[in-house]
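Q: Given only this backbone (83 positions), what sequence would you predict?
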């Protein structure tokens, strides 16, 4: 899927990134919590953007991403080995 274009034909500044379903559902759940606090439903891009901004401030983020990537790779290998 490609990002929507503006009326001038240029690509929007937003990026489209596929995410696993469980993480998408977690972001939707968080949006509902924020909705209760704001008394309005924020756009999902606002929620995910805030999550990314906060994560980028976290010490050891590169290590956490590395561990997640290795775990994902291991799951893929395990899935192809099982009969």
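A: Predicted residues:
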């Amino acid at each position: 899927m490609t990002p929507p274009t503006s009326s001038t034909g240029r690509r929007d500044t937003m990026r489209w990134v596929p995410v696993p379903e469980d993480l998408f559902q977690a972001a939707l759940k968080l949006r509902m919590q924020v909705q209760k606090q704001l008394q309005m439903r924020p756009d999902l891009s606002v929620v995910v953007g805030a999550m990314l901004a906060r994560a980028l401030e976290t010490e050891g983020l590169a290590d956490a991403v590395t561990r997640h990537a290795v775990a994902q790779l291991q799951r893929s290998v395990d899935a192809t080995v099982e009969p």
